[in-house]
Design goal:
The chain is of the alpha/beta class. The protein is built from 7 helices and 7 strands. It is globular, with a radius of gyration of 15 Å.
Length: 163
């Protein structure tokens, strides 16, 4: 799968899901209604940069804290194409996989990206291109690619149960 978009850089390390999507809004279960609260406790102006051409670029240990699927659901509702970062908290990465949002760890690409950089990701090979410079990450495992193509773990499982 090829993902292309514009970098939305979220500076800093150890960004907590509790500030990305505050607990006061956890009762919302419709991803479209979650959109106005994404990054609410961190930097609400980041929402102005999102859209169907956005690739979020992060620092290290992105997504620490509570297991808030709301963060990934709201990102997808905004049309975010994928997330590239220096490193991810285990639970955030798992939520991305389970919900079908491509996530790729590539320290050099994350460091090279500037706000608005053009980002191209080949999920099959792990190549990440930032403004014409190519960096190599680990390719996304085949099963994870299948999950992403299906829209996440639940749709993937439903497809197999019907077969």
């Amino acid at each position: 799968m090829i993902i292309e978009g514009r970098a939305v850089v979220i500076a800093g390390d150890d960004l907590d899901t509790d500030v990305m999507y505050p607990g006061a809004y956890l009762n919302i279960d419709d991803p479209e209604q979650m959109k106005p609260y994404l990054f609410e406790g961190f930097d609400p102006s980041l929402r102005d940069e999102l859209g169907d051409d956005a690739v979020i670029v992060t620092g290290a240990n992105f997504g620490i804290g509570s297991s808030r699927e709301h963060v990934v659901q709201a990102m997808k509702a905004w049309g975010v194409q994928g997330v590239v970062g220096k490193s991810f908290a285990r639970i955030f990465r798992r939520n991305c996989v389970n919900l079908g949002l491509p996530v790729l760890e590539c320290l050099d690409a994350a460091e090279a990206a500037q706000p608005g950089s053009r980002v191209r990701i080949d999920t099959g090979t792990g190549a990440v291109d930032v403004d014409g410079r190519t960096f190599q990450a680990q390719p996304i495992p085949e099963l994870v690619l299948e999950l992403q193509a299906s829209g996440g773990l639940v749709p993937w499982a439903r497809e197999r149960l019907r077969a």
